[in-house]
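Extended Data, panel c. Modelled sequence:
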Amino acid sequence: MSDERPERPPAAGLLDALRVRRNATAGVVAGIVLAALVYLVRVFELIGPVTGTQRYPILGPEGWFLGLAFVLASATALFVTAALTVVTAVRLARRL
Protein backbone atom coordinates (compact mmCIF):
# COMPACT_ATOMS: atom_id res chain seq x y z
CA MET A 1 0.00 0.00 0.00
CA SER A 2 1.08 3.47 -0.78
CA ASP A 3 0.75 6.43 1.57
CA GLU A 4 0.57 8.87 -1.33
CA ARG A 5 -2.70 10.47 -2.25
CA PRO A 6 -3.76 10.35 -5.86
CA GLU A 7 -3.80 13.64 -7.72
CA ARG A 8 -7.18 15.24 -7.88
CA PRO A 9 -8.26 17.66 -10.55
CA PRO A 10 -8.62 21.21 -9.30
CA ALA A 11 -12.15 22.18 -8.30
CA ALA A 12 -11.70 25.67 -9.71
CA GLY A 13 -12.35 24.38 -13.22
CA LEU A 14 -15.70 22.93 -12.20
CA LEU A 15 -16.68 26.09 -10.37
CA ASP A 16 -15.77 28.16 -13.41
CA ALA A 17 -17.68 25.87 -15.77
CA LEU A 18 -20.80 26.05 -13.60
CA ARG A 19 -20.40 29.83 -13.25
CA VAL A 20 -20.87 29.60 -9.49
CA ARG A 21 -19.42 33.05 -8.79
CA ARG A 22 -21.88 34.73 -11.19
CA ASN A 23 -24.76 32.67 -9.80
CA ALA A 24 -23.83 33.53 -6.22
CA THR A 25 -23.67 37.22 -7.08
CA ALA A 26 -27.11 37.07 -8.68
CA GLY A 27 -28.43 35.16 -5.65
CA VAL A 28 -27.08 37.68 -3.16
CA VAL A 29 -28.52 40.59 -5.14
CA ALA A 30 -31.92 38.88 -5.39
CA GLY A 31 -31.89 38.08 -1.67
CA ILE A 32 -30.98 41.61 -0.63
CA VAL A 33 -33.57 43.19 -2.93
CA LEU A 34 -36.36 40.88 -1.75
CA ALA A 35 -35.48 41.30 1.93
CA ALA A 36 -35.25 45.09 1.58
CA LEU A 37 -38.65 45.27 -0.09
CA VAL A 38 -40.30 43.08 2.52
CA TYR A 39 -38.60 45.00 5.34
CA LEU A 40 -39.73 48.35 3.97
CA VAL A 41 -43.30 47.14 3.47
CA ARG A 42 -43.53 45.71 6.98
CA VAL A 43 -41.68 48.35 9.02
CA PHE A 44 -43.15 51.39 7.29
CA GLU A 45 -46.55 49.68 7.03
CA LEU A 46 -46.86 50.46 3.32
CA ILE A 47 -49.81 48.08 2.99
CA GLY A 48 -51.43 49.08 6.24
CA PRO A 49 -50.86 48.39 9.91
CA VAL A 50 -50.70 44.92 11.37
CA THR A 51 -54.06 43.91 12.82
CA GLY A 52 -54.05 43.03 16.48
CA THR A 53 -51.40 43.81 19.04
CA GLN A 54 -47.95 42.31 18.94
CA ARG A 55 -45.17 42.63 21.48
CA TYR A 56 -41.57 42.70 20.34
CA PRO A 57 -39.35 42.31 23.40
CA ILE A 58 -35.88 43.86 23.63
CA LEU A 59 -35.33 44.84 19.96
CA GLY A 60 -38.68 46.33 19.04
CA PRO A 61 -40.42 45.61 15.74
CA GLU A 62 -37.64 47.09 13.61
CA GLY A 63 -35.03 44.83 15.19
CA TRP A 64 -37.11 41.69 14.84
CA PHE A 65 -38.00 42.46 11.23
CA LEU A 66 -34.35 43.22 10.46
CA GLY A 67 -33.39 39.78 11.78
CA LEU A 68 -36.14 38.17 9.71
CA ALA A 69 -34.98 40.16 6.68
CA PHE A 70 -31.47 38.74 7.12
CA VAL A 71 -32.83 35.20 7.24
CA LEU A 72 -34.99 35.84 4.17
CA ALA A 73 -32.04 37.35 2.26
CA SER A 74 -29.77 34.41 3.14
CA ALA A 75 -32.34 31.77 2.21
CA THR A 76 -33.23 33.52 -1.04
CA ALA A 77 -29.56 33.93 -1.99
CA LEU A 78 -28.93 30.23 -1.37
CA PHE A 79 -32.01 29.15 -3.31
CA VAL A 80 -31.30 31.38 -6.32
CA THR A 81 -27.63 30.37 -6.40
CA ALA A 82 -28.49 26.66 -6.28
CA ALA A 83 -31.22 27.00 -8.92
CA LEU A 84 -28.99 28.92 -11.33
CA THR A 85 -26.14 26.46 -10.83
CA VAL A 86 -28.44 23.51 -11.54
CA VAL A 87 -29.70 25.22 -14.71
CA THR A 88 -26.11 25.82 -15.81
CA ALA A 89 -25.17 22.19 -15.09
CA VAL A 90 -28.14 20.90 -17.09
CA ARG A 91 -27.25 23.14 -20.03
CA LEU A 92 -23.64 21.95 -19.95
CA ALA A 93 -24.73 18.31 -19.75
CA ARG A 94 -27.05 18.70 -22.74
CA ARG A 95 -24.34 20.41 -24.77
CA LEU A 96 -21.89 17.58 -24.11
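Residues 60-95 form the longest helix (36 residues). This feature is highlighted in the accompanying rendering.
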